[in-house]
Amino acid sequence: MPGSTNGSTKAMGALTVGGLVVVTAYTVAIGSNGWLWFGWVVLGLLTLAMVVTQS
Known about the structure:
This protein is mainly α. The chain has one domain. 80% of the residues lie in helices and 0% in strands. The chain has 2 helices and no strands. The chain has helices spanning 7-29, 34-54. Helix 1 (7-29) packs antiparallel against helix 2. The longest helix has 23 residues, at 7-29. The chain crosses the membrane at residues 12-29, 35-53. This is Membrane protein.
């Protein structure tokens, strides 16, 4: 069905959003860590790739 996403894509999206919250909280509390942000960007790109390939 066009426009729908399967469970794994939704889970990956939730993980990406949760990761953003965690990385942002870490940055506010302790300070910026480039590796955490790099990891989140990679996770976001993987999630985007999953969404694009679903359609």
